[in-house]
Amino acid sequence: MQGFQLTFFTQQDRRHGGLPLGEWLLQEARSLGVAGATLIAATEGFGHDRKLHSAHFFDLADQPIEIMMALSQEDTDRLFEKLREERIDIFYIKTPIEFGMTGED
């Protein structure tokens, strides 16, 4: 199948709808019928503001989070429409890909 890999980048302390933004994105992708998504917690990183974000032993609030998913064109369009409706401002990378499951005929 042809589609896109979407990767979103945020911090653990960003919230939307009462949830951490990464968790909200996972739940929203699932409710839209996206086949799967993964949330990855990183050790450190920096964004457009050049500020270093990192996980600390006692405080994970600033921990960088990456949310990755493979989507069809239709799922991609629906997810971006939802992000516009919710007025979510988040950095992303959108890459054309081929995806599927091994063993399928």
Automatic annotation (TrEMBL):
This is PII-like signaling protein. SUPFAM superfamilies: GlnB-like. Signal peptide: none annotated. InterPro entries: N-reg_PII-like_a/b, N-reg_PII/ATP_PRibTrfase_C, UPF0166. Belongs to the UPF0166 family. Pfam families: DUF190. It comes from the Bacteria.
